[in-house]
Structures are given as structure tokens and as C-alpha cells.
Design brief:
By secondary structure, the chain is of the alpha+beta class. It is built from nine helices and 14 strands. The protein is 31% helix and 24% strand. Strands 3-4-5-9-8-7-6 form a seven-stranded mixed beta sheet, with helices on both faces. A five-stranded antiparallel beta sheet has the order 13-12-11-10-14. The longest helix is centred in the C-terminal third of the chain and has 22 residues, at 236-257. The mean pLDDT is 92.
Length: 326
């Protein structure tokens, strides 16, 4: 009920009487009073005035379970939410939850990770109080070789969610790095549990640099944060909720055909590599070309100097800009 009270107070933006809250939730005045006091203890500033009711005073965000639930405006993506002050890895936690029966759409969110991971086993720095770390659970019906494409669906959703929340012109560096002003702002790691031709579950982990922070020397030239780009604090729960809303919309399109044919236009509009010269780091031999966007399975189409078009698969090679990260 606490999340619903928050949502109602935030939506109203003015005093809401205790009687109205009682009638809305079908509970006693005492139950409402207890819920309000619990929210106050969590850090929310709620004014209580006799004969007027309760008012949520706009202050710094209280990032946690109730805040996330109160902002989630989706049918299934982000339901239920499990929030942790600290967890080893949201992907590892989500895998355990999925194995124990968590439904599709369940979301694991943490303020800090003690063992955050990136691609190819790299560590992902995950300090408390600064950033957003979350993992979404999917339980798809399509075959395993389709699962890698959901990473691109999430990349599209993250870029849209960032733009919606704080106005930063986020784009996608193929296949799934989110960038702003040529610097990385988010990483995405997708993993799955599979048996022959059956997927038990897919987990999509997302780490977004939100607050102002000092990056390690090897990252300083290629990493940034949302606050650094927009010049103000970014509400983390609203960011997660906006990403879930965008993901739900795009995933329904993807799930219809189990490919990206319905999302190519939207993805390519966000693609910072598009129509730019790139260097393809292929173990069989590096080469340059012009990135022309993705196809229906998420491969990057690279036009070579002789006019031929190579299809680049993300699992095999990396793509870099000629004069920098993008």
C-alpha cells in the first residue's frame, strides 16, 4: 500500500485527505497513518495538516522499493520489483530468482553491487549511491539463437528511457553500449539458461552511470555520467520506470516475429555508428568500412570500399570508431 500511496500523492500534487485514502484503499485511518509514518521513516517528506490531509513535499529522491513500485507504469515489465541496498550481482540474483519461479518481467534492482560483471568476464565498478544497476528476467518461447537480439531491444529502451527522463541525447554504439557525446554511459549484459532448444530464462543486466563520479584513468576518456551530461541530479527510479515502459513496448514488437524487423528504423535512428567509418576488429583480419545500420537479426551492415556489404555478428567481433571510441 505504501507504493500506491506515494503514487497517489505524487499524481495529485496537493493535499489528499485521510478519509479519501481510507476509502481508496479500503483500510482504516490507523492503517493509513502507519503507512505514512513508515514512509517518513524511509526519508519521504510528507506534511500532515488537520482537516486538509497529507502532502508529498518534493525533495531529493528516496531510491528504494516503494519509490520504484510507485513509478512503474507497465503491464508486466518491472513486476514484481526486488530492491537491494547491496547485492553481489543483479544478474546472479536474478538467475537465482528465475530458477526459483520468478515470473517473466521480474526486476532486480540494487544500489550497489559487490561483484558486478561486464562482458567477457570483466568487472563492473558498482559503488553505492551513484548509479543504477538492474536485471530483468524473461522467460521466452522462442529458440535460443534468437535470444541475443533482446540485448539490442534493451539498448533501444535504455536510450529512449534516458532521453525521456533527463533529456540527454543518448545513442547506441553497436550493438549495445549507450553513449552520450561520444562517451559510454551504460553497459548491458545478457545471459541465459538453456537446455537443448529450450530457454529456461534470459536475464538482461543494465548498469547506468548516473551521478557525478571520478572514473579510473583508463576509463576517463571514454566514460561519462548522466549528471555530468545534463548538469543536474537524475531521478533513478523514474529512469528505471521509463526504461521498463520503453522495453515493454519494443519487446512486444520483437516477440511478434522473434526478430528485429519491426525495430530496425527505431534502432538505426539511435545508432551513433550509422553512416560513419568504423574499424571492424575481426580475429580473421581487421578492416574498415562504413556502418549502414542493422538488419533483422541485429547484425551490423558494413559497406566496404569496393561496395560489398559485410554482415558483422556481435558475438565474433568488435567495432570501433576510426578516430575514437565511437
Amino acid at each position: 500500500m505504501k507504493a500506491e500511496i506515494l503514487s497517489l500523492l505524487r499524481e495529485r500534487g496537493s493535499y489528499v485527505s485521510g478519509q479519501e485514502l481510507c476509502e481508496h484503499f479500503g483500510v482504516s485511518r490507523t492503517a493509513v497513518w502507519k503507512a505514512i509514518n513508515q514512509l517518513k521513516k524511509e526519508g519521504y517528506c510528507i506534511q500532515a495538516v488537520q482537516n486538509r490531509g497529507y502532502l508529498l513535499v518534493s525533495e531529493d529522491e528516496v531510491f528504494g522499493q516503494n519509490e520504484l513500485e510507485s513509478r512503474m507504469d507497465t503491464k508486466w515489465a518491472g513486476h514484481p520489483v526486488s530492491f537491494y541496498d547491496a547485492v553481489n550481482s543483479t544478474n546472479l540474483r536474478a538467475k537465482l530468482d528465475a530458477d526459483n519461479g520468478a515470473p517473466e518481467g521480474a526486476l532486480v534492482v540494487a544500489d550497489m553491487q559487490t561483484a558486478g560483471r561486464g562482458r567477457r568476464g570483466r568487472t563492473w565498478s558498482s559503488p553505492a549511491g551513484l548509479n543504477v544497476y538492474f536485471t530483468l528476467i524473461l522467460k521466452p518461447q522462442y529458440v535460443p539463437d534468437k535470444a541475443s537480439m533482446v540485448t539490442l531491444v534493451m539498448a533501444l529502451a535504455v536510450a529512449e528511457g534516458i532521453r525521456e527522463t533527463c533529456g540527454v541525447e543518448a545513442g547506441i554504439k553497436w550493438p549495445n553500449d549507450i553513449v552520450a557525446n561520444g562517451k559510454k554511459i551504460c553497459g548491458i549484459l545478457t545471459e541465459m539458461s538453456v537446455e537443448r532448444d529450450f530457454i529456461h530464462h534470459v536475464v538482461i543486466g543494465v548498469g547506468i552511470n548516473v551521478g557525478l563520479q571520478e572514473f579510473a584513468p583508463e576509463l576517463a576518456a571514454t566514460a561519462t555520467s548522466l549528471q555530468a551530461e545534463c548538469g543536474r541530479k537524475v531521478p533513478k527510479a523514474a529512469l528505471v520506470a521509463n526504461i521498463m515502459k520503453a522495453f515493454e513496448k519494443h519487446y512486444e514488437v520483437f516477440r511478434g516475429k522473434a526478430d528485429l524487423s519491426g525495430l530496425i528504423g527505431s534502432y538505426n535512428e539511435m545508432l551513433v555508428n550509422r553512416d560513419r567509418e568504423v574499424r571492424v576488429l575481426d580475429p580473421k583480419g581487421e578492416y574498415n568500412g562504413i556502418a549502414r545500420g542493422i538488419n533483422e537479426v541485429g547484425e551490423l551492415l558494413v559497406e566496404l570500399p569496393d561496395g560489398r556489404v559485410e554482415k558483422v555478428y556481435a558475438g565474433e567481433v568488435s567495432v570501433r570508431g576510426i578516430y575514437g571510441y565511437v
